[in-house]
Amino acid sequence: MIGLDTNVLVRYLVNDVPEQAEAARALLEMLSANNPAFVCREVAIELCWVLERNYRFSRDRIATILEELVASEEIRVEAADDVVRAANGYRRGGAGFSDRMIAAAARRSGADTLFTFDRKAARLNGAALLSEARL
């Protein structure tokens, strides 16, 4: 198994640097279910951020890309269930993808509450605004 960095996926998806896009495409075409690539949570989060901020992809398009990565037999995505749930929520609006992944990690670790100063993130299940909390 190999690991993929965010920039490889970006070049493949955006094709803005032709030589790198071709190298990324060649690498991804070598993958198979028996010879997959690994994408960590951090790459999924960074990929979302880069596509949204630098390339102005819509939330729906980014969510679809993340869901397709998870569904691919050639790619193993860390915390795949969290990525799919976060992508689905991200598509609908409100909190960002990274906030949703942070909340999912907190839940998975057994945290009762995720405290934040981010009002959108505080609306997520299991999250609360620290500035309004009664500790």
Count of distinct strands: 5
Q: SS-based structural class?
A: mainly alpha
Helices and strands, in order, run as EHHEHHEHHEHE
Give me the number of helical elements: 7
Average pLDDT score: 96
- Principal-axes geometry comes out as elongated
Integer tally of domains: 1
Helix content: 55-70%
Radius of gyration: 16 Å
Largest sheet: 3 strands, parallel
Report how far apart the termini are: 46 Å
Unreliable spans are none
| Percentage of residues in DSSP E strands | 5-15%
Main-sheet strand order equals 1-2-3
Task: Summarize the entry for a quick read.
With 135 residues, the protein is mainly α.
Characterization of this structure:
The chain starts with a strand and ends in a 6-residue tail after the last strand. It has one domain. Strands 1-2-3 form a 3-stranded parallel sheet. The chain has a two-stranded parallel sheet with strand order 4-5. By secondary structure, it is mainly alpha-helical. Helix 1 crosses helix 2, helix 4 packs antiparallel against helix 5 and helix 5 crosses helix 6. The protein contains 7 helices and 5 strands; from the N terminus they run E-H-H-E-H-H-E-H-H-E-H-E.
Indicate the topology.
Elements: E1 2-3, H1 6-14, H2 18-29, E2 37-39, H3 41-53, H4 59-71, E3 75-77, H5 80-92, H6 97-109, E4 114-116, H7 119-122, E5 127-129
Parallel strand pairs: 1-2, 2-3, 4-5
Helix pairs in contact: 1-2, 1-3, 3-4, 4-5, 5-6
Quick tags:
135 residues; mainly alpha; 3-stranded parallel β-sheet; elongated
